Structure formats: structure tokens, C-alpha cells
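Chapter review. Work through the record for 2-isopropylmalate synthase before attempting the end-of-chapter questions.
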Amino acid sequence: MRKINIFDTTLRDGEQSAGINLNHSEKMEVARQLERLGVDIIEAGFPASSKGDFRAVKEIADTIRNCSVTGLSRSNMKDIDISWEALKDGAEPRLHLFIATSPIHMQYKLKMTPEQVLQTAVDSVKYAAQKFPIIQFSAEDATRSDLPFLAQVVKAVIDAGATVINIPDTVGYTTPKEYGQIFTYLKENVPNIGKAILSTHCHDDLGMAVANSLSAVEHGAGQVECTINGIGERAGNAALEEIGVALHIRNDFYQAKTGLNLQQIKKTSTLVSKLTGVIVPPNKAVIGKNAFAHESGIHQDGILKEKSTYEIISPELVGVASNDMVLGKHSGRHAFRNRMEELGYTLTTEEINNLFVAFKELADKKKEITDDDLLSLLFEEKLGSSVKFYSLKSLQVQYVTHQVTTATISMTTPENEEVHEACTGSGSVEAIYNTLERIIGSKVHLEDYRIQANTGGRDALAEVFVKINFQGMTSSGRGSAQDVLEASAKAYINAVNRILLQQQYREELQNLVK
Ligand SMILES: CC(=O)SCCNC(=O)CCNC(=O)[C@H](O)C(C)(C)COP(=O)(O)OP(=O)(O)OC[C@H]1O[C@@H](n2cnc3c(N)ncnc32)[C@H](O)[C@@H]1OP(=O)(O)O
Ligand SMILES: CC(C)C(=O)C(=O)O
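C-alpha cells for 2-isopropylmalate synthase:
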């Protein structure tokens, strides 16, 4: 059976989704989880795009030992040099070089002739090959490219040293049949194609990203590029969990296997959803809340008699626990640490002690602490705390029906001063956000606000996701607490802190360039 390499681009193309903005610790956490999931390649970012991306790619490459770590680079020497600095100490450094080959992109975006694009592609692969042992070349917008020209570029870059050739459906335009035909065309018309692994990278603009990727596998692709939960630019990328499980369940048809540890799928999906704020729809294949729920009588009857009547994937296969109720207020540190380890998080004694305080506070208020609650606590305390320009000390809201609402807030500022402020609003959240805006002293536009409960029940933990625009920059933020208003305040502060961190990076970068 053929082995298909899984190339995860959650941290690069996934992070290109509008409103997603992961901080450094969050990226590290996702990378570690991808390693546990068993992906072959992690695309950790675009090192030349910002100092923050460079730092994240470098630390991921330096830390992750069981996957190859790569970064995206334009076809120019500056991007390649920066990428080498970020990736050189990785377990298996590889560069992901790209340039567009479609007439639309060449004429309007690159303003280059096809001959110039061909030459630039070859020159950059040759230059990169002096440093990198593995080079992947992507012909951006390949599916809208002229096929003989695409074949010419592919042949030339393989001769120049590329060993992985990616054929991206950059704008999600192709169909499964057509995409398969492009792979067949390249196999028949590029004489040296056998020296390279063919790769697929599909976007979901027409809802065909997974189908197109699987068609490419049928037609010879040995690598699939995808993201957790299908996040990515515009409508997203092919969803890793769907590709992984489809190849597993239908290996009779595809005659292919992956090295994925499928039991880590649910955990990885939850992590990415919580950190990015992109909620998984209940009906999403493989990982949605309803993916294993049987509602109608005839189905339930069938399931009770024989599961395989209506269930082609068992929940256990992808790590969905049948009962995820774990700890309560009488649990001690050992059980707590043990459950964290079962969830895949090995924490220091100090981290356990800090988290345990938050856990006990929550357990006092909430009957059952689920895995989801534990993960929210962990991300809130461990990852959220790495960026704290502003931090919430206390919050009081006075709400009276038919009257204005008042919020009173105490916060610590970036200068480490404690400030107190009060403002009114037409509702509780508005009063809180008006107060926070006054403390921050600059206009903050709220572009999106979403709230969800972690689990069912009156005492469920609230999770709030916001998207804000502040000082010309957009960021998402998240906050969780048992109280929805506290979660709302935390999400807002988290988003402001992320923007302040980006600004700090920019200033540091400008000082470096001066
Ligand atoms: C299909 C994809 O997903 S491609 C990846 C997309 N991801 C991103 O763009 C995220 C990261 N990007 C960034 O941070 C910025 O765009 C940067 C730092 C890379 C570049 O920023 P800027 O220098 O300000 O350029 P800007 O983004 O406005 O324009 C892109 C430039 O790169 C050129 N370019 C685009 N693709 C390539 C390529 N593959 N190889 C060489 N040059 C390229 C464009 O023609 C344009 O050049 P021009 O300035 O001479 O007109
Ligand atoms: C850089 C390439 C692989 C890409 O992201 C795309 O074409 O969508």
C-alpha cells in the first residue's frame, strides 16, 4: 500500500484565514500536537513575512524532532536566506518555494512574462538547493495554468533540484475529474517526473477541496497538503481529518495509507478550534458534534442491533470519548496531573500548581469538569498569559431592567499600574467594552462577537471570541470564564494584547532595519 505524506499547513495557510491570529505559545502548542498526530511535514509559517513568523518557524523547527518542518518562501534570494536561518536547525530542513504559473497571476500580479517566471523558478530552486536538502516547489494557481507551460516549469525545477512538486488549486476552481487529469497529464508529459513526489494543495471555494485532494491521490499524488478543521484563506483548505479518515476507511479503494495517529484527531481539532476561535459546525464530517449522533428511530434501532448499519467511523477511531466527564471538586493534584497527561499535556509542577488553583475555583462552582473545561483552563492560564500588556483585576456590572447598565473595571496597564474606570452602555457587554476602551484610551472597533458554552448544562464554561480593529490592525481574541461577562471582557483584552504584541514586533523589526 502506498504511503501518503501528510503536509499540515494549519500554521501557514490556516493562519491566513481572516481574523485568525495565533500568538507564539499557541503556535508552539499546535506544532507539538501536530507532532503527536503524526503528520509528516509541518508548514510552520512564512519566515520572511514578519519577525513574529520568523521566530515561530525557528522555534518550531528547533523543537519538533519527529516531523520535517518547512516554511513558505517567494522565489527570491532574500526570502530564501531568511527561511534558511529559520529552518536550518530543524530535524529535516525543507523549503517550500512558490511562484505563480497562470496567465492571470503572471500578467497582473507578478507582471512577468512566462519566460521570466520559468527563469526565476529555476534560479531560485538552484539557489535554495545550495542550502536546503529538500526543496518543494509550488506552481501557484496551477489549475488555471496552461498545461504545456506548467509541464515545462515542473520539468525545469526538478532538473534544478526540487524533489517535491506541488500542484495547488489556489483559488478552489478545479473539479475532481479535471484535477485528476492534470496529474495524469504531468505524469505523461514531464519526462523526469519520477524523480519527484507529487503533492496536492486544494482550497474549498466550491466545496470540493477534499474531493479534489483525494482525486489527486487516485492519480498519483504522494503528498496531501491540508489543515486542521479545514481552516485557511477564504473558504479554507482541504480538511486534514477528512482526508486522513477517508484514506483510512476507504483504503480498499485508494490503496493508500498515512502515518497519522487518528486517535489524536479530535484533540487536535478541539485545540485548533479553541485557539483560533473558529467554531467547528455540528454537522462537520468526522469532528462535528453530531458526526456520531443518531437521532431518528430507525437509525437508533439499527445502531442498537448492529453499529455498522449506520456508523462507518467509530468515535473511538478519532479519539472521541464516549464519556468525557473526568474530575470534580474532590479531585487532587495527582488525578489532575494524570488527566492532563492523558490529554497530552505534560506540565511542570509550577504550572500544575497554578492551574490547580483555577481548577479548584471552577470545581467549586461547577459539578462536573469535562476535558473541554480542562483544555479551556489550560489555554487561558498557560497560553493566554504569555501576552499580558493589559490584565483584568476585577469586574462589576450593574444591570437594571429599562435602565442604563454600568460596568466598573480594575485593570493592570502595560506600565504595571492599576487603574479603575466605570462607564455605561445600553447592555452589559457594551458597558464593559466602553469601560475597557476608556482605559485603553484609543478607539476599538468590535467587528465580531461570538459566545458558546463548552458543554451543556447551566454551569457550563462560557467561551467568547471577538474580532476587533484597533489602531489600524485586526485581531481575534478569546476568553473563557464561568461568567459570560467576565469571558467577554477577557476576550476583548486578549485581542487588544495580541495587537500590542504585533506592534511591538513591528517596532523591533523597524529598529533592526534602521
Ligand atoms: C497562495 C498563497 O497563499 S501565497 C502566500 C500568501 N501569504 C502571504 O502573503 C502572507 C505573508 N505575506 C506578507 O507578510 C507580505 O505580503 C510580504 C512580507 C511577503 C511581502 O510584503 P510586501 O513587500 O509589502 O509586498 P506585497 O505583499 O504588497 O506584494 C507582494 C510582492 O511579492 C511579489 N511576489 C508574489 N509572489 C511572489 C513569488 N512567488 N515570488 C517572487 N515574488 C512574488 C509580488 O509580485 C509583489 O511584488 P512587487 O512589490 O514588486 O509588486
Ligand atoms: C503557496 C501555495 C501552495 C498556496 O498556498 C496556494 O497556492 O494556495
